[in-house]
Specification:
The protein is extended, with a radius of gyration of 29 Å. By secondary structure, it is an alpha+beta fold. Helix 1 packs across helix 2. The mean pLDDT is about 75. Among the domains are: about 90 residues, GMP Synthetase, Chain A, domain 3, CATH 3.30.300; about 35 residues, no CATH class.
Length: about 180
């Protein structure tokens, strides 16, 4: 993939995310995150990968509402992005977060001593943070050093003029330059 295509993908991801957040008022569209955009080499089509939070039925409903809203989003992008042609937007579900969550749950269950066969489907869509238990060989964490507050940086000041009749540190007046009065 070329650098230009990567820049276009990132720009489209940001602008589509902003549009979904601020311009759409469909109540069926819940919490949506645009995770990636992949444009074709001729920039005519773009796959918009989204991550959705909610139950399976809510995800399906949100995905269908997003697919119906994409022509409106595409039209709005034409005024924000200068391209000859805004690509056709195809919304797809990004389930990598769900797979990662499932792996984290499996690892937690194995660490707790249960076999993976005993583990059923997890109702959550995001992992719950769990405090890590200390193990043999762990190095104790040092307390974070508190740094004293730093003074704000001083702004650049002109050097005091040396040859003029004005006071040091003041700006030269009329008729005075760097070399002093004329």
């Amino acid at each position: 993939m070329s650098q230009r295509t990567e820049r276009i993908d990132e720009l489209l991801r940001q602008e589509i995310g902003k549009a979904l957040e601020s311009e759409l008022s469909d109540p069926r569209i819940g919490f949506v995150t645009v995770t990636d955009v992949e444009t074709s080499s001729d920039l005519s089509h773009a796959k918009v990968w989204v991550s959705l939070i909610g139950s399976e039925d809510e995800r399906k409903e949100t995905l269908s509402a997003l697919r119906r809203a994409m022509p409106y989003v595409r039209h709005g992008l034409s005024s924000k992005i200068r391209m000859r042609r805004i690509p056709e937007l195809d919304v797809r579900l990004d389930d990598s977060i769900d797979r990662g969550t499932r792996i984290l749950h499996l690892l937690d269950e194995i660490q707790a001593g249960r076999s993976p066969e005993e583990i059923g489907a997890q109702p959550e869509s995001l992992p719950t943070p769990v405090q890590r238990l200390p193990r043999d060989g762990d190095v104790p964490e040092r307390e974070s050093a508190v740094l004293p507050p730093q003074e704000p940086r001083k702004r650049f000041r002109r050097r005091p003029e040396t040859g003029g009749a004005s006071k040091p540190g003041s700006r030269p007046g009329r008729g005075e330059g760097r070399r002093g009065p004329r």
